[in-house]
Amino acid sequence: MADSLKDAPFKTVQVESLVVMKIVRHCSNSFPTAATGSIVGMDKDGVLEVTNTFPFPTVDVASTEGSHQNDASALAAAAPRAKANIVYQNDMIRHLKEVNVDANNVGWYTSATMGNFVNPSFIENQYHYQRENDRTVALVHDVSRSSQGALSLRAFKLTQNFMTAFKEGKFTTENLQKSKLSFKDILVEFPIHVHNSHLLTSFLHQLPAAPTTEDVTMPTSLADLQRDPVKMPLHQSADILDLSIDPFLEKTCDLLLDSIESHYTELNNHQYYQRQLAREQAKITAWQTKRKAENAARVAAKQQPLPEDEWQRIFKLPQEPSRLEGMLNAKQVEQYSKQIDGFTANVSAKMFAVRGNLLPE
């Protein structure tokens, strides 16, 4: 991971605060359906600057005959590589150039729920952008995590080794062993820095400060209230003292169990392939042994020996299933594990703080 970050054309991603607000608003309004859009900016001195963004148009699935409820999520997830959206993106970039705005495509963004974003659609979208321009990233906004009050915005990029393997499309056991490619080598994450313009920074410094005293002098007339509005003191929140288990932790554990079950399903499929391959190879070995004995008898009888390569026409070896789905599932398990580690850190600290009152005397 460190080597992939070192070989990247940029080291960090700088996102304008206005872009962050646009992404958050679009993802929140589209929740729980996935929201996608394009981001534009420029690469300067090892920093990928994201200066503007616009969402991809959505398709009204409800008005389409014979549509399914999950079609909206599937269409939204595949929107970045749809032909109509590619044309729409090029038109938007052309219009941005006309008004002298940064119009270099630097990737796309998508929404996620509880960190669930590592899937084939996400990989195909990023591959679509990165094969044309290596200086592109995928911004992932987790709506569920952000609803707790902390912004969750992450930047990812496919590694060069995975790009090569995905282009060839050969995710067999032999190829993975030769390239030494694992689930840890799929994505590389970049640090994100939120940037404010000078005008916005000046506005933030001009915001009124919190009152210095807790005693508030109430106005005696309407004129006093209009001349000097009442500024109530800030009250400290007691939510940080709550010892209850975070509900997102329970949901993340359920998603982790589902991913582990999917992992075992992929493992059983591969074991079934190995058993089927072993049976076919045993049949081929028995056929070759029988054919060699027949040829030995025919040579002894001074007859023409039969060809020994007919087994390629008679027997058909099963094709090995792709290991890509298992790799993505393992990467998703890693994401869930990191989230659980972050959730349990705060809960464990609170439990240790009050364990003196919880332990029996």
Commentary on this structure:
The protein has 361 residues and is of the alpha/beta class. The protein has 14 helices and 8 strands. Strands 7-6-5-4-2-3-1-8 form an 8-stranded mixed beta sheet. β4, α5 and β5 form a beta-alpha-beta unit. About 2% of the residues have low confidence.
Explain the layout of strands and helices.
Layout: H1 2-7, E1 12-16, H2 17-30, E2 36-44, E3 47-55, H3 71-77, H4 83-98, E4 104-112, H5 120-130, E5 137-142, H6 143-146, E6 153-158, H7 160-168, H8 173-179, E7 187-190, E8 192-195, H9 198-205, H10 222-227, H11 247-300, H12 311-314, H13 324-353, H14 355-358
Parallel strand pairs: 1-3, 1-8, 4-5
Antiparallel strand pairs: 2-3, 2-4, 5-6, 6-7
Helix pairs in contact: 11-13
- What are the secondary-structure elements, in order, as H or E? HEHEEHHEHEHEHHEEHHHHHH
Count every helix, treating DSSP H or I runs of 4 or more residues as helices.
14
List the strand order in the largest sheet: 7-6-5-4-2-3-1-8
From the spread of the alpha carbons, the general shape counts as elongated
Q: Radius of gyration over alpha carbons?
A: 30 Å
Bin the helical content: 40-55%
Low-confidence stretches: 61-69
Mean of all residue-level pLDDT scores: 77
Biggest sheet layout: 8 strands, mixed
Summarize the structure.
With 361 residues, the chain is an alpha/beta fold.
